[in-house]
From TrEMBL:
Protein family (similarity comment): Belongs to the flavoredoxin family.
Signal peptide: none
Flavin reductase like domain: residues covered: 19-157
Protein name: Flavin reductase family protein
InterPro entries attached to this UniProt entry: Flavin_Rdtase-like_dom, Flavoredoxin, Split_barrel_FMN-bd
Keywords: Flavoprotein, Membrane, Transmembrane, Transmembrane helix
SUPFAM superfamilies: FMN-binding split barrel (SSF50475)
Gene3D superfamilies, per the entry: Electron Transport, Fmn-binding Protein, Chain A
GO MF annotation list: FMN binding; oxidoreductase activity, acting on the CH-NH group of donors, NAD or NADP as acceptor
Cofactor: FMN
Record-annotated membrane-spanning stretches: 40-58
Organism of this sequence: Aerophobetes bacterium
Amino acid sequence: MRKVKVNYTDYLKETLQAMSNTGLLLTSADKKGKMNVMTIGWGTVGIIWGMPMFLVLVRPSRFTYGLIEETGEFTVNVPPRKLNEITFFCGNVSGRDHDKFKEKGLTPIAGENVISPIIEECVVHYECKVLHKNDIIPARVPEEAISKFYPQGDYHRIFFGRIISVFANREVKID
Ligand SMILES: Cc1cc2nc3c(=O)[nH]c(=O)nc-3n(C[C@H](O)[C@H](O)[C@H](O)COP(=O)(O)O)c2cc1C
């Protein structure tokens, strides 16, 4: 592994591009270290209270939701294009009944500052600690978004993850 510490702004373009294409891989773990990975397509990176933050939107129905609630931590990993099939898989089966790391041969590496692992096969890794959370307020969502995204409710919780550290493998290309 050749992961080096980088600035949180170094891979913003690649991160946002991957998020809007096939998605990013978010890992979480319970207090005993049981880990899970799910795909996210919604989120943003920015500054809040003078600190770099990764905001992710997770629906209560996700297994991941309970894990982030339990430990208040997560990592976001940018997969290279060759992991497209795995990214799709992680966004379509639940950690409640699958060990996605094992089934797809993903290698967890212990996070430096968080209990959630980073994923060796990915290129960029954000380690985040939840500083704040907020639920989508249905009454303030445009009607067309309600019918398109929330026919069953299951309104996202927005986790504000303070970016503690960012690692990258500078030799591997995302595309
Ligand atoms: C491309 C893609 C993007 C997704 N983005 C999100 C997201 O931002 N938030 C969310 O709650 N679910 C999202 N999902 C759905 C979850 O990844 C999916 O329900 C997953 O199986 C949840 O895993 P878990 O139950 O192990 O947490 C996305 C799925 C795909 C395929």
